[in-house]
C-alpha cells in the first residue's frame, strides 16, 4: 500500500495493535524538505507533515525566510550549484592563464636571491655558481627599515579625532588606540610574524596582500599575510575595490575543512584529499629554494574562496517598484573545492542595511612600486637586469682567477707523470719520466690571463647603481656631519629620500586601510565591552567608541622611513634653535632629539620645566633679590603684594642694585595691571546687574499693561525686543573696556608713583622707569579714548540707520496694507456684480 506524500500518523501505540489483521505496508523513502517542514496537528493525536513552499506563503519571499548571513548553497538545487561551480572554475583558470608571464618573471627572478648555489659544468667542471648578493642585500635592508617603522614596539596604531575636539572625544580616541594596540600586539599572535614575512616578500614580488576577517573558530580578528601568487584577480582588474572577481587560493587541511563543516560555515558534503594537489610554479620555486620536497601524501585540499559578482538564481536583485529582477549582479563569497568542484558555501558580501549593496572589502593591497597593471613592480623587475649582469661578471672574475691559479695545458706524448689521473694539489711535486731533453719543452701550458681589472671596475659600477636604488638616502646621510650647513642637509635629504619616501607612503596608505578594516571587525564581532578597566569611562563603551568620530591611523610617519633620517632632521632643528635661542623653545628641540634617538624615560634626562605657581609676597621678594622676576596671578591679593614689594624699596642695600629695582618695578606693574582689569570687570558686572534689574522692572510694567488690556500682546513683544536690543547695545564694547582698563591702571599707577623711586649715586631721587611707564599709559589711554569715540560715533550712526530703516519699513507696510484693502474692496464689488448678474439670469 503506497503512502501519500502528506502522511498522517494515527497515534496508535504498539500494544493497541494486538488482534488486528496483519497488513503488508510499503513505505516510501523518507522525504527531504530542503526548505524545511511544518507539523500540523489534527487534534486527535495525529499530525500532518507539510513541506514549506516558499512561494505559497503570502507576504513572505524566499529572501525574507532565509537569514541574511545564511549559507545560500543549502537552499539551491544541485543542478544550479553544479553549473555555477563549472563557470567559476573556468573563470579561475582563465585568470591564472592571464598572469602566466608575471609568474614566469617572478619565478625566474627568485634565483637572483642566491639562496641556492648552482653547480655548473660549463665552461669547465666546477665552474663558479655563485650569485651576486645585490638583490638579497637590498631586500634585507628594505625589510629591516620598513619592519621597524611599520611595527614599533609600542604598537602600530594611533588615532585622530575628526571634527570638533573635546575632552570626551580625546579620551575615546585614546581608548580605541590602546585597545587596537593591545589586540595587535597581544591577542593577534600571527600579526607580527606575518608582517615580518610580508615585508620580505614585498620587494621581491612587488605586491603582497593582507586579509582582514573574523575567524569563527578562533573567535577573534585575523590579519593574515597572503603572498601574491595566492591571490588571483580577473584580467581586467585595476584595483581590489573595482575587481569583479578575486580568488583567494587556500591550502587547507582536510580536518580543518571538517571543523568548518561542523561549525556550520561549510556545507556538509563528502570531500577527499587529492593525492596530487597541483602547485603553481612560484610555490614550486619557493619550495626548491627552501630545500623542501614532498615525499609523502597528506590530506590537503585546494579551496578557492572567490569574491565574485553573481546574478544568483532565486536571489536576484529585485526592482522595489515592479518586483521584477533587474539583472544586476550582486557581490557574493563562493567557497568551493578545486579538485572536486563541490561548492561549500555561498554568502552575501554586502551589508543587510545597505540599499546600494556595495561589496565588503576584506583584502588590502601592499605595493612596492606601482606597476603597469594590477600587480606592482619589485626589485626583481626594477634591478633584476643589473643583478644578472653583476652575477655574470662575478662568475667570470672567479673563473678567471681559478684558471690562472690552476693552469692546464699540453704535454709531449712520451712524458709520463706518476698518478696522472689525480689532480695536483697546491704545493705538491710529483715525479715524472722524461725520455730526454728539457721538461719545459715537453710541457706547454695554456695562455690563461689574470682576472681583468676592467671587468672588476664594471662590476663595481653595476653594484653601486643597484645599491643606490634602495640605499641612496642612508649613504648620503652618513656622509653629512654637524658642520654641514642646514640648507645642504635638507637638500641632500630631499634628494636621497625620493624613492624610499614614495614606497613608504604606499605602505602607510595600505596599513591605514588595514587598520580601518580591523576597526570594523572589532566593532561588529568582538564582545561589546573592553576586557580591562579603562580610564575616564566604563568598560561598556567599547561599541560606542568605534564610530565615525575617531579615525584610525598608523604610527609611522609617511615622510620618514629610517632612524638616521629622523635623527638628522631633529639635529637640524636643534641647530636652528641653538642659533637663535630667544626665538625658539630649546627644551622642545632637545626633547625631539631624544625622541629621534628613541631614548626611554626622557623626563629623567630632560625634566619638564615647572609651571609657575602663585607665591606669597615674601617668596616673591626673595626671588627678586636673586635677580628673577616672579609671575603675578589674577587671583592674588594685589594690594597686599604691592605694599610688600614697595616696602623693600626702603632698604638701602637695594638702592644701589638697579637690577633688583627693575625686577621690583616690573612685578609691581604686573599687579597694577591685573588689579585694574579686576576692578573694571567688577564695574561691568555691577552695571549689567543694574541694567538687568531695570529691564525686569520695565518688562513687569509692560506685562501689567497687557493684563489690564491697555496694550496689545503684539506691541508688548515688540517693546520687550526693543528693550533687549537697547540693553545689548548699551554694553561696553571691547575697545571701551580696554580704554577703561588703561584709565584705571593709570590712576593706580599715579597713587603708587611717589613710592616707585630710587636714589642714584648723588642721592637724588629718580624714577625713569615710572616716567616711561606713565608716558606709555598716557599714549595707550589716548589711543583707547580715540577708539572709544569712533566706536560711539559708529554706534550712533548705526542707530540712526536702524531708526530710518524702521520708519521706512513702517511706511512700506502701511502702504502695502492700504493697497491690499483697496484690492479687497474691488474684488468684493466685482463679486457683488457677478452675483447680481447671476440672480437676474
- C-alpha end-to-end distance: 92 Å
Rg is 45 Å
Strand proportion, as a percent range, falls in 5-15%
Strand order of the largest sheet: 6-7-8-9-10
Average pLDDT level: 77
Helix content: 40-55%
**Shape label:** flat
Class of secondary structure makeup: alpha+beta
Q: Could you name the ranges where pLDDT drops below 50 across 5 or more consecutive residues?
A: 1-34, 54-60, 472-478, 759-766
Sheet with most strands: 5 strands, antiparallel
Number of helices: 24
Strand tally is 18
Structure description:
The structure is a single chain. The chain is of the alpha+beta class and 841 residues long. Among the domains are: 115-190 and 198-205 and 375-406 and 448-561, no CATH class; 408-422 and 429-447, no CATH class; 617-784, no CATH class. 50% of the residues lie in helices and 11% in strands. The chain is built from 24 helices and 18 strands. The protein has a 5-stranded antiparallel β-sheet. A 3-stranded antiparallel β-sheet has the order 5-4-11. The chain is flat and about 145 Å long. 21% of the residues are buried. Mean pLDDT is 77; it is low at 1-34, 54-60, 472-478 and 759-766.
List keywords for this structure.
841 residues, alpha+beta, 5-stranded antiparallel β-sheet, 3-stranded antiparallel β-sheet, 18 strands, 50% helix, flat
List the helices and strands and how they pair.
Layout: E1 37-41, E2 47-51, H1 62-65, H2 78-98, H3 100-109, H4 134-150, E3 157-161, H5 167-187, H6 191-205, E4 207-215, E5 220-226, E6 231-233, E7 245-253, H7 254-262, H8 281-290, E8 300-310, E9 330-337, E10 343-348, E11 363-367, H9 379-405, E12 409-411, E13 416-417, E14 432-433, H10 439-442, E15 443-445, H11 453-478, H12 486-496, H13 498-525, H14 542-545, E16 550-554, H15 563-579, H16 586-596, H17 602-605, H18 617-625, H19 638-647, H20 652-655, H21 658-708, H22 713-730, H23 734-752, E17 758-759, E18 765-766, H24 768-840
Antiparallel strand pairs: 1-2, 3-16, 4-5, 4-11, 6-7, 7-8, 8-9, 9-10, 12-15, 13-14, 17-18
Helix pairs in contact: 3-8, 4-6, 4-9, 4-11, 9-11, 11-12, 12-15, 15-16, 18-19, 19-21, 21-22, 21-23, 23-24
Amino acid at each position: 500500500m503506497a503512502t501519500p506524500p502528506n502522511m498522517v500518523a494515527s497515534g496508535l501505540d504498539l500494544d493497541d495493535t494486538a488482534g488486528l489483521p496483519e497488513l503488508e505496508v510499503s513505505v516510501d523513502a523518507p522525504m527531504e524538505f530542503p526548505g524545511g517542514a511544518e507539523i500540523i496537528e489534527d487534534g486527535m493525536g495525529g499530525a500532518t507533515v507539510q513541506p514549506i513552499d516558499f512561494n505559497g506563503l503570502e507576504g513572505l519571499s524566499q529572501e525574507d525566510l532565509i537569514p541574511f548571513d545564511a549559507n545560500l548553497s543549502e537552499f539551491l538545487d544541485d543542478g544550479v550549484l553544479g553549473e555555477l561551480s563549472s563557470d567559476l572554475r573556468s573563470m579561475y583558470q582563465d585568470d591564472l592563464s592571464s598572469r602566466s608571464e608575471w609568474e614566469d618573471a617572478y619565478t625566474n627572478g627568485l634565483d637572483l636571491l642566491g639562496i641556492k648555489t648552482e653547480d655548473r659544468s660549463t665552461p669547465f667542471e666546477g665552474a663558479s655558481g655563485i650569485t651576486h648578493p645585490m638583490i638579497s642585500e637590498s631586500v634585507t635592508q628594505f625589510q629591516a627599515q620598513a619592519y621597524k617603522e611599520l611595527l614599533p614596539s609600542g604598537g602600530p596604531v594611533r588615532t585622530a579625532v575628526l571634527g570638533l575636539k573635546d575632552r570626551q572625544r580625546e579620551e575615546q580616541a585614546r581608548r580605541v588606540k590602546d585597545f587596537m594596540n593591545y589586540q595587535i600586539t597581544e591577542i593577534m599572535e600571527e600579526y607580527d610574524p606575518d608582517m615580518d614575512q610580508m615585508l620580505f616578500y614585498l620587494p621581491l614580488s612587488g605586491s603582497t596582500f593582507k586579509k582582514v576577517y573574523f575567524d569563527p573558530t578562533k573567535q577573534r580578528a585575523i590579519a593574515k599575510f597572503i603572498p601574491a601568487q595566492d591571490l588571483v584577480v580577473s584580467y581586467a582588474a585595476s584595483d581590489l575595490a573595482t575587481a569583479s572577481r578575486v580568488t583567494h587560493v587556500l591550502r587547507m587541511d582536510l580536518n580543518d575543512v571538517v571543523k568548518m563543516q561542523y561549525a556550520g560555515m561549510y556545507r556538509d558534503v563528502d570531500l577527499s584529499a587529492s593525492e596530487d594537489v597541483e602547485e603553481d610554479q612560484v610555490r614550486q620555486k619557493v619550495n626548491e629554494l627552501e630545500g623542501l620536497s614532498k615525499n609523502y601524501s597528506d590530506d590537503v585540499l585546494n579551496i578557492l574562496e572567490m569574491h565574485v559578482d553573481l546574478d544568483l538564481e532565486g536571489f536576484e536583485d529585485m526592482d522595489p517598484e515592479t518586483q521584477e529582477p533587474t539583472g544586476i549582479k550582486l557581490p557574493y563569497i563562493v567557497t568551493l573545492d578545486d579538485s572536486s568542484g563541490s561548492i561549500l558555501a555561498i554568502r552575501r558580501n554586502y551589508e543587510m542595511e545597505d540599499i546600494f549593496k556595495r561589496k565588503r572589502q576584506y583584502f588590502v593591497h601592499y605595493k612596492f612600486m606601482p606597476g603597469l597593471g594590477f600587480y606592482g613592480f619589485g626589485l626583481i623587475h626594477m634591478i633584476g637586469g643589473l643583478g644578472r649582469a653583476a652575477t655574470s661578471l662575478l662568475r667570470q672574475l672567479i673563473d678567471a682567477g681559478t684558471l690562472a691559479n690552476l693552469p692546464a695545458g699540453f704535454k709531449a706524448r712520451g712524458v709520463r707523470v706518476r698518478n696522472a689521473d689525480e689532480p695536483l694539489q697546491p704545493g705538491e711535486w710529483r715525479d715524472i719520466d722524461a725520455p730526454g731533453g728539457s721538461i719545459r719543452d715537453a710541457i706547454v701550458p695554456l695562455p690563461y690571463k689574470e682576472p681583468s681589472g676592467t671587468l672588476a671596475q664594471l662590476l663595481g659600477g653595476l653594484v653601486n647603481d643597484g645599491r643606490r636604488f634602495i640605499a641612496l638616502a642612508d649613504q648620503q646621510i652618513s656622509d653629512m656631519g654637524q658642520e654641514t650647513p642646514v640648507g645642504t642637509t635638507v637638500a641632500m635629504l630631499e634628494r636621497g629620500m625620493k624613492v624610499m619616501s614614495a614606497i613608504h607612503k604606499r605602505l602607510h596608505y595600505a596599513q591605514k586601510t588595514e587598520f580601518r578594516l580591523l576597526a570594523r571587525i572589532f566593532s561588529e564581532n568582538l564582545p561589546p565591552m573592553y576586557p580591562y578597566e579603562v580610564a575616564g569611562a566604563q568598560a561598556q563603551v567599547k561599541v560606542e567608541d568605534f564610530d565615525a568620530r575617531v579615525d584610525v591611523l598608523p604610527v609611522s610617519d609617511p615622510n620618514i622611513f629610517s632612524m638616521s633620517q629622523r635623527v638628522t632632521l631633529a639635529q637640524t632643528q636643534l641647530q636652528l634653535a641653538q642659533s637663535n635661542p630667544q626665538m625658539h623653545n630649546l627644551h622642545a628641540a632637545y626633547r625631539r632629539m631624544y625622541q629621534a634617538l628613541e631614548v626611554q624615560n626622557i623626563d629623567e634626562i630632560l625634566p619638564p620645566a615647572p609651571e609657575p605657581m602663585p607665591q606669597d609676597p615674601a617668596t616673591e621678594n626673595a626671588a627678586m633679590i636673586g635677580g628673577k622676576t616672579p609671575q603675578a596671578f589674577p587671583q592674588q591679593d594685589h594690594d597686599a603684594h604691592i605694599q610688600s614689594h614697595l616696602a623693600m624699596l626702603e632698604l638701602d642695600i637695594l638702592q644701589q642694585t638697579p637690577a633688583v629695582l627693575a625686577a621690583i618695578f616690573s612685578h609691581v606693574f604686573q599687579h597694577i595691571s591685573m588689579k585694574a582689569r579686576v576692578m573694571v570687570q567688577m564695574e561691568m558686572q555691577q552695571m549689567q546687574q543694574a541694567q538687568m534689574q531695570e529691564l525686569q522692572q520695565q518688562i513687569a510694567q509692560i506685562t501689567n499693561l497687557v493684563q489690564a488690556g491697555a496694550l496689545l500682546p503684539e506691541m508688548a513683544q515688540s517693546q520687550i525686543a526693543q528693550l533687549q536690543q537697547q540693553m545689548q547695545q548699551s554694553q561696553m564694547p571691547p575697545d571701551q573696556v580696554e580704554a577703561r582698563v588703561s584709565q584705571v591702571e593709570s590712576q593706580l599707577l599715579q597713587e603708587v608713583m611717589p613710592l616707585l623711586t630710587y636714589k642714584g649715586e648723588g642721592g637724588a631721587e629718580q624714577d625713569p622707569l615710572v616716567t616711561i611707564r606713565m608716558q606709555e599709559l598716557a599714549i595707550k589711554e589716548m589711543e583707547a579714548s580715540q577708539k572709544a569715540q569712533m566706536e560711539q560715533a559708529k554706534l550712533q550712526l548705526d542707530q540712526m540707520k536702524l531708526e530710518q530703516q524702521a520708519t521706512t519699513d513702517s511706511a512700506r507696510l502701511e502702504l502695502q496694507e492700504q493697497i491690499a484693502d483697496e484690492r479687497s474692496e474691488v474684488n468684493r464689488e466685482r463679486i457683488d456684480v457677478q452675483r447680481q448678474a447671476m440672480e437676474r439670469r
